[in-house]
Structures are given as C-alpha cells and as structure tokens.
Input
Amino acid sequence: MRRRKAKKIAILPDPRFNEVMVTKFVNNMMFSGKKNLAFKIFYEAMDIVEEKTEEGVTGLETWKKALDNITPSVEVRSRRVGGATYQIPTPVREGRKQSLGMKWLIGYARKRNEKTMAQKLANEVIAAAKEEGAAYKKKEDTLRMAEANKAFSHFRF
Output
C-alpha cells in the first residue's frame, strides 16, 4: 500500500480553445513525446468536424458532445469469490469516466481506414456525436455487460 496519495499534476489549458480537457485528450493521443504534432492533428480534426457538421456548431462542441456520448457510467470488474471469478458491475468514478472515453475515442479512431489521423479522428468524433461508430458501440457493450451481470452486484466490495 502507498504511504500517501500521489499528487495530481496541474495540466495547463491548450492554446487555441483554452480548455484543460483538450490538453488531456492530446496527451493521450501523443506518441513519443510529440505534443506539437498531436496538437496539430487535433486542431486539424476539429476544423474537419466543423466543415462536415451543420452551421452554428463548433468543432469543439461536437467533440465535447461525442465525449459525453461515449463516457461509461458503469463497468464490470472481475472479483474472485470462493474459487469462481465473477464480473461485478461497479459505477465508474469521474476521472476514470473521462479517461476511458478519451482512450476509446483515440483507439477506435486509429483503427479507422481514412488516410490521415486527423481525418480518422474527425470521422470518429462525428460518428460518436451522432451516437454511432465503434467508440459508442464499446460504451453500449460495456453497459450491456454490466446489465447482464447485475445479479452479482451484491458481491461488490
């Protein structure tokens, strides 16, 4: 067990939108410490989202809506009880909700078949905002799994 709780590192807001969430997202998307490139990809994706969606809605608003749509409220955790392993549905805490949503969005954007990462990310964001796409499906599957294992919720610690 740790002696004390780890300190949270303060994350600075991004330069264009002045949002801390954007910086967190870019930090998740970044490879090999190439933050500048990750920011460039994100901003390019937001421009593409803005072009493809209806007028009056910014790319950032669409991205936030997409993140809200794919953040899970419940997840299943494995727990051994008397030699058997049960999948126990547990509520997800706030910080983990956000990070899971971001990781799913980035992961499924990378698996898409468009040419550049900006296009992949933009199309995944648009799909998630419309409540479709692979990242949204992942959230639905997680909820379905929790619903199916509701009988084991009395094993929660």
